[in-house]
């Protein structure tokens, strides 16, 4: 009985660690999350990925939905984006399906807060 409890605890810890490590990938298939558009302002990149001519710039931003709900988004780009540009991200949890640069006039008032 004691071995079973220890085994179950180990499985729970390992599964939790995998989920936290690969959260973006899991969120893509998670049926509990819905896709939603998030508006954000681009800041400086948080880091780079890759080497030589295959560098990607990683952005971790805080954005808002059209209803004004605060969301954290993460995405990458093959080129460094202009600072203070507005972006529209189609997100599902921590997974980013696509992103587009937009004009400030296209951002809903509730998302501009």
From TrEMBL:
Coiled coil: none
UniProt superkingdom: Bacteria
InterPro entries registered for this protein in UniProt: DUF1093, YxeA-like_sf
Name of the featured protein: YxeA family protein
Organism of derivation: Paenibacillus auburnensis
Taxonomy of the source species: Bacteria, Bacillati, Bacillota, Bacilli, Bacillales
